[in-house]
Design brief:
By secondary structure, the protein is mainly alpha-helical. It has 32 helices and five strands.
């Protein structure tokens, strides 16, 4: 008998004709055979489909008890709590209702309607008693011979309607209970077909869930050899690569080391997904790329296109940079990504730090903001410096014009600009350094391109980003332009005709002009006009005016004196802090200090009156609502503080 055989002669044959011959113990399983197949035939375990052809009804009968156990085991992980949570959903996703309808058909429950509400009501009724429901699922294989064919047809019909989404990976996004229901229904249907079509089954698949039975279960009576057909299938690998299960993704990456050269087009997007994932997957992905591929410019371009330049600015990871550096960073698409990395602001790191804060909060451990910011800045800087090193190595191999144009496009159009930040806060130091390196090769071309963007002939071509582009061009020009460059200053003057240039962008252009010109700044008047707009951050505008205005500028003196004269309104509308900025600006601009002293007198008087009224109002504070008390106290303390500052400076 087969059970008495000491060794089984196994022959595994590929479709291409290659054969693996091995002697195995009768108790060995397919799982123990698969690593040998992977090693000797070069087919990863995930890609192996193992079949026995021309099976007899007797072999099928021998496998039925194993299949029954597997159906029951698929539902073991689910608990009464999981079922209760599922039942408590008010409006579960339709596909979750569909998988429960498949269960309902197989168990023989009657449905009362086909609309969503009726189906969900029937499903909840089926799960009313969680313990009884679980028992029904576990015992179903024992009565599989008596299940009516009509129930199975109805179940299969629902699965066919759902289509390719009916798989555990898709259900992972919905509910863990639905994953188990999906596994149970697919195993149950497979068992039903084996039981009711024993004579029609001519082949059995050995890999997958059926890898636990010993190999001798597939032997004919008295036989001692087994012929297995090997079909190479990549679909499982790509399904694992899309999984949310990190363990499965790592298995897929191991398989990619072997199959990636054979199906590069499909592997590139999957590997790029891993390069954007967590640390473990990123490290495994870069190891896979270096094992599977040789450096190749076209392949570097394919990876760069799949990742996208925005990835390097917003979600930059060192492994993505390392992949392009290894494959060929001089490819134009790869170069764009490296240049985008010079301006990296890692959102992925932001999310990581947010998660870290939450975890530390749960542990009630203090989180030092300074420590978090340091970690974030260090990681971003390391990423940018790596990109700068690569840039310096490859830029000389490319034309200066190509490099300058690519740099300008990525720097000027970068979308990351922190809330409340200036335009230059969206441009990192490494990006500026790279532009300086490239400009040395063709300074005339670099300056011409900056002038074109400061004062474009067709502004509409740049759309809503034109103001950001102008501000960043002004910022870059400081790094590469000479003092009092006439052509450049003429382009700056052209910005005065742009009515849309305002706010932080206008302030940036004005400050940069002062750095580049030894003459009077023409943007003072534009900034003074900004002070009358309600949505302007006036303190910041006044700071810039104070920096660029010439001494004894009558326009600035009049504007700051007006602020001081309207101090009472300013305190109520904008707070007392703006008065201090106006007083500082007035003090900085005038050479005759008596003008300053006379100018701030109304502000000091208003502050004194406000403090006096606030102190008198304290007597009736008990009659004020708590919110108003808090606001009044805050305003009073601010007013007293700025009064002390103004009087001291006077």
């Amino acid at each position: 008998m087969a059970m008495e055989v000491e060794k089984i002669q196994v022959m595994v044959q590929k479709m291409s004709g290659e054969v693996l011959e091995a002697k195995v113990s009768p108790e060995d399983t397919v799982r123990e055979l698969q690593p040998r197949i992977a090693e000797e035939l070069g087919v990863p375990v995930l890609c192996q489909q193992l079949w026995i052809n021309n099976v007899t009804p007797q072999i099928v009968e021998k496998t039925l008890p194993v299949m029954c156990n597997q159906v029951s085991e698929t539902i073991q992980p689910i608990t009464n709590k999981d079922i209760a949570e599922m039942k408590a959903m008010m409006r579960p996703p339709p596909i979750c209702v569909d998988v429960l309808c498949v269960v309902m058909h197989l168990l023989g429950f009657k449905r009362r309607g086909n609309d969503y509400q009726a189906k969900w009501k029937d499903c909840r009724k089926m799960m009313a008693n969680a313990s009884h429901f679980r028992t029904s699922l576990t015992d179903w294989p024992n009565d599989v011979r008596n299940v009516p064919e009509k129930q199975v047809r109805e179940a299969q019909k629902v699965i066919d309607e759902v289509g390719e989404l009916y798989n555990r990976e898709h259900f992972m996004k919905m509910s863990i209970a639905c994953v188990y229901f999906c596994d149970w229904t697919l195993s149950a249907l497979k068992l039903y077909r084996a039981v009711h079509s024993t004579g029609q089954v001519t082949s059995l698949r050995l890999d997958g869930p059926e890898t636990r039975p010993p190999l001798n279960i597939y032997l004919e009576e008295g036989a001692s050899s087994l012929l297995i057909s090997l079909v190479v299938d990549f679909e499982t690998v790509f399904a694992y690569a899309k999984s949310y299960d990190a363990k499965k993704v790592l298995e897929a990456l191991e398989a990619f080391k072997v199959i990636a050269p054979k199906c590069t087009e499909r592997c590139v997007p999957a590997l790029c997904k891993c390069l954007r994932s967590d640390d473990q997957e990123r490290i495994a992905a870069i190891e896979c790329i270096k094992t599977a591929f040789q450096p190749d410019d076209d392949l570097a371009g394919a990876f760069a296109e799949a990742l996208g330049a925005a990835h390097f600015t917003e979600h930059g990871t060192e492994e993505a940079v390392e992949a392009l550096e290894y494959l060929g960073p001089q490819n134009p698409a790869a170069l764009r990504c490296i240049i985008a990395g010079l301006n990296a602001k890692s959102q992925m790191l932001d999310e990581f730090l947010m998660l870290r804060r939450r975890r530390m909060k749960k542990k009630r451990a203090p989180v030092e903001e300074e420590e978090v910011d340091t970690d974030k800045n260090d990681a971003e800087k390391e990423m940018r410096q790596r990109c700068l090193e690569i840039f310096k190595q490859i830029e000389a191999k490319l034309s200066a014009a190509e490099v300058i144009d690519t740099l300008l496009k990525e720097i000027l159009l970068a979308t990351h600009n922190p809330v409340g930040g200036t335009p230059s806060s969206g441009v990192q130091q490494e990006a500026v350094m790279a532009f300086m390196v490239a400009s040395k090769r063709d300074e005339d071309y670099a300056m011409a391109r900056i002038r074109e963007r400061l004062n474009p002939e067709a502004p509409e071509a740049f759309g809503e980003q034109l103001q950001q582009i102008k501000a960043r061009c002004a910022f870059l020009s400081i790094a590469v332009a000479s003092k009092d460059d006439e052509k450049l200053l003429e382009a700056f003057h052209g910005c005065l005709n742009d009515d849309q240039l305002r706010g932080p962008e206008l302030q940036a252009v004005a400050e940069c002009f002062s750095e580049l010109s030894s003459g009077p700044n023409p943007f003072v008047q534009s900034l003074l006009q900004q002070l009358v707009l309600w949505d302007t951050k006036k303190a910041e505008v006044i700071r810039v005016i104070m920096k660029i205005a010439p001494k004894d500028d009558s326009r600035v003196i009049e504007a700051m004196q007006r602020y001081c004269r309207e101090a009472e309104r300013i305190i109520l509308d904008e707070g007392p802090g703006i008065l201090k900025m106006a007083a500082e600006c007035l003090n900085h601009v005038v050479t005759d200090k008596s003008i300053y002293e006379k100018g701030i007198t109304p502000a000091i008087d208003a502050l004194i009156r406000k403090c006096t009224r606030s102190n008198l109002a304290q007597r009736d504070a008990s009659q004020m609502p708590l919110m108003l008390q808090t606001q009044e106290c805050r305003l009073r303390s601010q007013t007293e503080f700025f009064l002390i500052l103004l009087v001291t400076s006077n």
